[in-house]
Amino acid sequence: MIVLDASVILKWLFLAETNRDKAIEIMERHLTEQDFIAVPDLLPYEITNVLATKANVSEQEALAGISQILSYELEINSADPVDHAAMLRLSRAHHISVYDAAYVHLAQKLNCPLITADEKLYEKTKSLPGVRLLQ
Prior knowledge:
Blueprint: E1 2-4, H1 6-9, H2 20-31, E2 37-40, H3 43-53, H4 59-70, E3 75-77, H5 81-94, H6 98-110, E4 114-116, H7 119-125, E5 131-133
Parallel strand pairs: 1-2, 1-4, 2-3, 4-5
Helix pairs in contact: 3-4, 5-6
């Protein structure tokens, strides 16, 4: 089991992304059940937001991208009040958004690695066990 954040999963959709090949390898291991990917339940919102506001894609391409990612049967995890308290503490301790803390916390909760392509997030959390930069 691994946790991926949106910065890695979005690489599945965009051909010109740096380290896309590494992100695709992770996706293929998931699809062939060699590994499993867990994500917090905010991931679909993050993907949709990027496709709606930041990516230079048509609405049809954005909808296809969202559908594609959701078809991969990622293990989507909901947070309870205890999880939210842990995310708040991680956010404050590492000066990261609560959204980023959701990924970090999920990896800690599942006792598995978090892989991110977000260098700022990595730099702020690399002291935590299991946080890895996609490279």
